[in-house]
């Protein structure tokens, strides 16, 4: 499986961010894949944002839940992230990540990441 993210690199505070993760080499509805968005602000560690499962269930980080949404497009085989009311602290590299839970153990995949800048 290969993941590729894209979206606008520069936004203004209060705008809405929309990122897309295209999945190649596998279907997003294949059991037991879980598709996450993870971000890394400059100089900081990775922050898990939320996940959507192969069956469509979603879970979010409590700190981001109020203005974050993860969805999927089965026809396009994409995982989408939307964040409302952006702030400068949302500046980060945003990664698409996949876990597949196999009987032999989990296997994970990462996209290359896409930079998002929200100037103050």
Task: Write up what this structure looks like.
This protein has strands at 2-6, 17-24, 33-40, 47-53, 58-60, 68-73, 78-83, 92-102, 105-110, 114-116. Strands 3, 4, 5, 8, 9 and 10 form a 6-stranded antiparallel β-sheet that branches. It has 120 residues and is mainly beta. The chain is globular and about 45 Å long. The model has no long low-confidence stretch (mean pLDDT 96). It has no helices and 10 strands. Strand 8 (92-102) and strand 9 (105-110) form a beta hairpin.
Largest sheet: 6 strands, antiparallel
Structural class comes to mainly beta
List how many beta strands DSSP finds: 10
Mean pLDDT: 96
In summary, what is this structure?
The protein is mainly beta and 120 residues long. It has strands at 2-6, 17-24, 33-40, 47-53, 58-60, 68-73, 78-83, 92-102, 105-110, 114-116.
Which helices and strands occur, and which strands form pairs?
Blueprint: E1 2-6, E2 17-24, E3 33-40, E4 47-53, E5 58-60, E6 68-73, E7 78-83, E8 92-102, E9 105-110, E10 114-116
Antiparallel strand pairs: 1-2, 2-7, 3-4, 3-8, 4-5, 6-7, 8-9, 8-10
């Amino acid at each position: 499986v290969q993941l590729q993210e894209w979206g606008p690199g520069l936004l203004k505070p209060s705008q809405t961010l929309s990122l897309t993760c295209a999945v190649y080499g596998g279907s997003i509805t294949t059991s037991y894949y879980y598709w996450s968005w993870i971000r890394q602000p400059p100089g900081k560690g990775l922050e898990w944002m939320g996940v959507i499962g192969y069956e469509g269930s979603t879970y979010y980080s409590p700190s981001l839940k109020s203005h974050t949404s993860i969805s999927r497009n089965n026809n396009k085989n994409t995982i989408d992230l939307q964040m409302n009311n952006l702030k400068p602290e949302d500046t980060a590299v945003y990664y698409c990540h996949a876990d597949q839970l196999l009987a032999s153990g989990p296997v994970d995949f990462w996209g290359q990441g896409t930079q998002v800048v929200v100037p103050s």
